[in-house]
Here is the input.
Amino acid sequence: MDTTQLLKGVLDAAVLAVVADEDGYGYDVVRRLRAAGLEEVGDASVYGTLRRLYAGGVLTSYVVPSDEGPHRKYYGINAQGRAMLDTQRKEWQEFSGTLTGLLGTSEGAA
Amino acid sequence: MSTTMSPEAVILDQVRRYAGDVRSHLADLPPEQVDDLTDGLEADLAEALADMPGTLRPVAAGSDLPDGGGTALLDVAARFGPAAAYAAELRSAAGLEPAAPGRRRRVSLGDHLAAEGAKLSSEWKSVWAPVTSSSQWAAFLEFAAVLRPVWWVLRAWVVVLVLYGWFNAPQNFELVPRAPFWRFLLLAAIVVSVQWGRGRWLRRRGLSPLRKTVDVLAVLVAVPFFVSAAVGGNTALNGLSTDSVGSFDRGYQQGVNDATGGYGASGISAGGGGSGVFVDGSPVSNLFAYDASGQALQDVQIFDDQGRPVRTVTAEGAAQAWTLPDFEQRWYFQPSFSTDGRERWNVYPLRGLPEDAVEWGGSERPLPLEGEQPRPMPSPFLQAQPLLVPSTGPAPQAPAPDGAADPAAPGAPASPPAPTGGEPSADQGGEGTTAPSVRRPGAPSPATATPVLEASTGAASSGG
Here is the structure.
């Protein structure tokens, strides 16, 4: 199964969850997603998602200069983002429950 | 070169190139959107690379090869994939339309130049990476950032000074223009520059190169300018003060003059290598000659040792209104005329006319009105102290400094000399016509001077 395709639909929720945990910059979010088990997540996908969520007004953003190199752009979640995360969490639980039931029966039947 | 770079610097260099490539694949998006999408990208890429040790080792070793740049680029791409794909992923994840092949700009000459420029700038950065990646550099940048407002003012000043220098005679150059128009321009330029610097105005992306160009030009002009100002002393500053003596409202006058594009008068240029006579560094407007007995002389022709007429009032000065102490009106100097009708400005004391007695009539300097004759100007004193003069007879005392006593003027009459066009006979008779006492002792006198028409006012004494 192409997990990258699956990931597309839920990347927003995953990114929101990671940022809700703690503010993070682009690669930091990538790293945490991978550490959580989403090995195939693409860097650019995460960065793009962060930008889109920010543009959608559910993330805040601030730039932190770095002593050793280029500056980092941090993202944090706001109230709107938390609301969105709650909604998506609920939707995901329903959806995954449904799908688990669906797949479980088919597997059992086979 | 590159082999001496720290691994971090190498990574940063590669990352900058890759990020630049990614941006070039987003070039069809509005610049703000590109910025938004790729802000902080370098940091992310660099950290991602640092997370995979070994990725860049072979690159660093091989980067002194001629095609090292290309190899390095490929190596970053090996980790992140081709920049085009990376850009596409970024774009789609951000919910933006994929780059439409039709909408994407064709690769133009400008793009090529931009790519070359980016490459050059990247190479330049990599050369300096050991410096720029140090914490001292960061401290310096922080310090420099504090001074940025100073630079904003400075660049506006430089630009206005360049314009000012362009439109004004060099001897009129001023570090702080006095003319209201230029002052206003300076203020306006500073406001624009500061607002520009703060990013308030002219934020359009297309203007960024313009801003950079202005900055570079300003640096190129400012540095030599201030160095020469520091080395060459205060020649520029001198120009401020040597314009005209006795003209109290000179600043205002010049302002009016500049603002009206040269209408009227003033702006006399007597400074620097210009013409004029100076006493203790300040320009002289008129000369007053007294004979040995202390009597004021009229219509004395003055020449230097090379026979050049000594002229205190330049052509500009002749067109300029002068203020005289205790006179409300302003005056214009008037020349004498030689017998052949030519103007003579080296005949002293110069005469003049108040401004209501002259007319411009399209000439370069004001001419006397019908019936007006140039009038004597006030002299500093009616009579000078008489001199002890070595006479042609028994010379009692006061020998000439260089031993060569001048017998030319022993007690010359106080009345104005009467030039009658006397024929100069020989070398030593030449100066006898009009200028009895101004010859430098012992110095060879120039050839004969042209007789000067006697002014018909006949004012023998000074007008004061």
Q: What stands out?
A: Residues 56-74, 233-273, 403-441, 457-464 of chain B have pLDDT under 50 and may be disordered. The radius of gyration of chain B is 37 Å. The CA atoms of residues 92 and 197 of chain B lie 34 Å apart.
